[in-house]
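Q: what does this look like with 2-phosphoglycolic acid bound?
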Amino acid sequence: MIFAANFKMHHTRASTTEYLDQLDKLLAEAEYPFKTIVFPPATALQPSREWITVGAQNAYPEERGAFTGEIGLDQLKEFGLDTVLIGHSERRNILGEEQEFLAKKFAFYAGHGFQIVYCVGEPLEVREAGDEAVAEYLWEQFDGIDLDYERLVVAYEPIWAIGTGRAAKVEEIAATHAELRRRIARPILYGGSVKPTNIKEIASVKDVDGVLVGGASLEVESFFSLMVAIAPPQV
Ligand code: PGA
């Protein structure tokens, strides 16, 4: 299982450092076989910890250059980071990132050997149109993406489930992950209102290899409790 925390525009440098310190300690004590990734905001980027991989929520597909407001490979390398999130629906929809640009980012960071958590997800009207419409929509979001890239992690995040408190139903998750699994051998995470009360049933769905968590990851106790729910520490 992979547990990934997406802070979005929450947490400062100081609170992120405190969070990572606390979580790393809990993980060291629990000795979980889980992989843990935390995506803090760009200003709080810092080296990965012993038990936590730190990743960037976004990065521009260049080493450096005239790209006002962006960070690139040089800025990530300063912290020894090699994990990046690409294609989150907030970047697609709010920041207007197009598929072609996402494919360019993917190719650039894959070319530099990064672990890439690549997000896809459909809006509500597509979900309401049925499984076939969802499949078609999602596969289009893989245009230009190398599905065989060895450090690819896919995150399926239905847009209507993100931050709404309404996670997809287990049947919807199962059907969608099975569809993605037809062509993707790499880990597939589910994201969208994952919380301590639904983690167990979501994690038990076939082809769910982990979760990408927003709101419920912001407090260490809450994020850690997702892991505890699946595997209570041995005493
Ligand atoms: P949420 O966000 O857990 O708050 O729904 C998930 C995400 O956007 O990655």
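The longest strand covers residues 115-120. The chain has one domain: 2-230.
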